[in-house]
Write a structure and sequence with these properties.
alpha/beta; Rossmann fold; 5-stranded parallel β-sheet; 15 strands
C-alpha cells in the first residue's frame, strides 16, 4: 500500500517570462510565422472525418533516450482503438516527426504536421520548454494538444494553455517539487545544494524544490542554474562542491545531466561521495552512457522521483501489457491516457474537428459512468451513456487548468547496472494540489 503524505502543494513556482525558456537549451524560442494570439484558426483542410494524430517526439536531442517510452504506449493505444472500430467508424492515423528537444526543430516539424499531414491532434512535445516555444502556433492553428511529459508550472494556465487547446496528463512540477523534497527530508538530509538546467523545467522545479525543502526545515545552501548546451561544467559544479552539503539535487535531462554528473565525480561530489537526488528528466536505462559508458555503476545510488508508472490503487490492463515490452516506463501511462482520451473526445464530438475535440475532453473524463478500456468506453458512448474514463495513470481528472490536481510519484534509484529501479520498500509519494 502507498503511504499518502499530507504535504500540500502551494504556489511554489515563480512565474517566469517565456524568454527564459530560450536559455533552456533550445536554439530558438520564437514561433516564426505564427499569427497573433487572437487570430482565428485557419481552415487547414484537416476536418475530413478521420482522426489524424501527430506525434511530436524527441527523435534527437537531450531527451532522445526516452523516445521509446513515449512512443510505445501511443502505438499500443492506437492499436487498441483501431481494433475496437476506430473513431467515428474510421481507423486513427498517426504521423511522427522530430521535436529535437529544441524549439526550432519542433516548430518546423509542427508546420509539417499541420500543413502537410493535416493532423487534428498533437501528442507531445516531450519537454516543457519546447512546448512553450510552440504554444502560440498550437493556439493560432487551433490544433488540440495533449502531452504526457510536460511538467513546467508555466503551462498551468486557467482555462488551459493555447486558448484551451492544450491538455496534459502528467502532474506539474508544483507537485513534484514537494514530492522530491519529501524524499530528501525523509532521508534526514539537512543541507542541500540544488543545480538545475536553465530552462522552464529546471528553474521552475528548482524553485519549487527549494521552497518545499525550506518549509520542511532543510537548509538550502545554493540554488544555481547551468546552461545545458555549455561545453564545460567545471564552474557550475564548483558552485555546489565544497559547500558541505549532505545532498545535492540535480535537475536536468539525459545528455546535460550526464555531463554534470561526470564533472561531479571528477570534483569528488559524485554519487559515491554525496547523496545525489534527481527527477524524471534524468531517468533512463541508458543515462550512465553519458557519465561513463564503460562503467554503469558510476551512477549507482543516484535517487529520485518520477510520475508513477503504476500509481498505487490503480489497476489497469495497460500496466501488464506494457511490462511485456521491456521498454522504460517513464511517462508511459500518461501518453497512453493522452491517446485514449483524445480519441474518446473525438468520438463524443462526432468529429475530428480539434475545436470540438477539446470541448469534449473534460466531459469524457469526469462525472459519468466509469470505464477503463477504449472498447468499453466506446460501447457506452454509442449507447448514449455519459462516461468517465479512468486511465492507466489514474483517474485523469482535469482541473480548470487542463492538468491533474494530484500527483503520485515513484521513488527510484540507479543500481550497479545503471538501471533505474523503484526502491524496494519505499512507498509512493502522493501530493495533492
Amino acid at each position: 500500500m502507498s503511504r499518502r503524505f499530507g504535504l500540500q502543494a502551494t504556489a511554489l513556482v515563480a512565474v517566469l517570462v517565456l524568454g527564459l525558456a530560450a536559455c533552456g537549451g533550445d536554439d530558438d524560442n520564437d514561433s516564426e510565422g505564427a499569427a497573433p494570439n487572437n487570430a482565428p484558426a485557419a481552415d487547414r483542410g484537416n476536418v475530413d472525418g478521420t482522426l489524424k494524430i501527430g506525434l511530436l517526439m524527441p527523435q534527437s536531442g537531450d531527451l532522445s533516450a526516452i523516445l521509446k517510452a513515449l512512443v510505445t504506449p501511443i502505438d499500443m493505444a492506437v492499436k487498441e482503438i483501431n481494433a475496437a472500430g476506430g473513431v467515428n467508424g474510421k481507423p486513427v492515423v498517426t504521423t511522427q516527426r522530430d521535436d529535437g528537444t529544441a524549439v526550432n526543430v519542433a516548430s518546423a516539424s509542427l508546420d509539417s504536421l499541420l500543413n502537410s499531414d493535416k493532423v487534428d491532434v498533437i501528442l507531445g512535445p516531450a519537454s516543457s520548454t519546447t512546448t512553450l516555444g510552440i504554444i502560440d502556433k498550437i493556439k493560432t492553428n487551433g490544433v488540440a494538444e495533449c502531452t504526457g511529459s510536460n511538467t513546467s508550472a508555466e503551462l498551468s494556465v486557467e482555462g488551459g494553455a493555447a486558448g484551451g487547446f492544450y491538455f496534459r496528463t502528467a502532474p506539474p512540477d508544483s507537485l513534484q517539487g514537494p514530492a522530491l523534497a519529501q524524499l530528501i527530508s525523509s532521508d534526514n538530509k539537512q543541507k542541500v545544494a540544488i543545480l538545475t538546467r536553465n530552462d522552464s523545467y529546471g528553474t521552475g522545479f528548482g524553485t519549487a524544490l527549494k521552497s518545499s525543502l525550506e518549509s520542511a526545515g532543510v537548509t538550502v545552501l545554493s540554488n544555481n542554474a547551468y546552461d545545458p548546451k555549455a561545453a564545460d561544467f567545471t564552474a557550475d559544479v564548483g558552485k555546489v562542491a565544497g559547500k558541505g552539503a549532505d545532498a545535492i539535487a540535480v535537475i536536468g535531462f539525459g545528455d546535460d545531466g550526464g555531463k554534470v554528473i561526470k564533472e561531479m565525480i571528477a570534483q569528488k561530489v559524485g554519487p559515491k561521495d554525496v547523496q545525489i537526488y534527481t527527477a524524471d528528466g534524468m531517468q533512463s536505462s541508458t543515462f550512465f552512457k553519458g557519465v561513463d559508458p564503460a562503467n554503469p555503476a558510476a551512477v549507482e545510488g543516484i535517487k529520485g522521483t518520477a510520475p508513477a508508472a503504476a500509481p498505487a490503487g490503480v489497476t489497469h490492463p495497460f500496466t501488464a501489457e506494457y511490462a511485456k515490452t521491456g521498454v522504460d516506463t517513464i511517462f508511459s501511462p500518461y501518453y497512453y491516457d493522452c491517446t485514449i482520451v483524445t480519441a474518446l473526445a473525438a468520438q463524443a464530438a462526432g468529429s475530428d474537428d480539434p475545436a470540438k475535440i477539446k470541448d469534449k475532453v473534460t466531459e469524457v473524463t469526469s462525472g459519468g459512468e466509469k470505464c477503463q478500456t477504449y472498447k468499453d468506453c466506446l460501447a457506452k458512448l454509442k449507447a448514449g451513456t455519459d462516461i468517465d474514463y479512468s486511465g492507466a495513470s489514474g483517474p485523469v481528472d482535469f482541473t480548470s487548468k487542463h492538468e491533474p490536481s494530484n500527483g503520485v510519484y515513484d521513488v527510484w534509484a540507479y543500481d550497479a547496472k545503471g538501471a533505474p529501479n523503484n526502491v524496494k520498500g519505499a512507498d509512493q509519494i502522493a501530493i495533492q494540489g
